[in-house]
Amino acid sequence: MFTGLVEFKASVVSVLEVPPGRRLRIAAQAIAADAALGDSICVSGCCLTVVAMADGVLDFEAGPETLSRTTLGQLQAGSPVNLERSLRMNDKLGGHLVTGHIDAVGEVAVRNDLGEWSEFWFRFPKSYAGQIAAKGSIAVDGVSLTVVAAEPERFSVQLIPHTLAVTTLGALRAGSAVNLETDLLAKYVERQLAFRPNA
Known about the structure:
The protein has helices spanning 29-32, 64-69, 161-166, 184-194; strands at 8-18, 21-27, 40-43, 46-54, 57-62, 80-85, 104-114, 117-123, 137-140, 143-146, 149-151, 154-159, 177-182. It is built from 4 helices and 13 strands. The protein folds into 2 domains: 8-85, Beta Barrel (Elongation Factor Tu (Ef-tu), domain 3), CATH 2.40.30; 104-194, Elongation Factor Tu (Ef-tu), domain 3 (Beta Barrel), CATH 2.40.30. Strands 10-9-13-7-8-12-11 form a 7-stranded antiparallel sheet. By secondary structure, it is mainly β.
């Protein structure tokens, strides 16, 4: 479990083909010092397991499902990624509950720079509209954000200068693909309503 508060913007060192998946090697000096084999790390929104580590570089393996249903399949050497270590039970929950299980790949529809701030509109598959609400929470590439406006196939957020500077979101442009995880509570509410017996 994660909070959506990115700890470190890192970069991919290399991507190795390890059929049927890939091994991602990420330079993560800022968090590698207290990492251990088997740790869960949120990599741009995806929960991955540390499978090897040396000299500040963490290795992760991503299988075919992850590569095909997230943006991790697009990563290459030099690609930036957001990293967050898993939540400890006594940690502050500054963002919202994020599982690291991606629901859909979205796309930047519009970016409006408002001085040092930026407004983004993201497109998403219409089937997730019931899980995205204005003033609700959503994780975009692992970053906990508050939804400003929600429409059937797109939503908007406004990003402060700090978020733009310390996460990968600052480099997004129209057409950029992003990993989306909708609010955990919204998933269960929608599921319960879908299977509610007819009155």
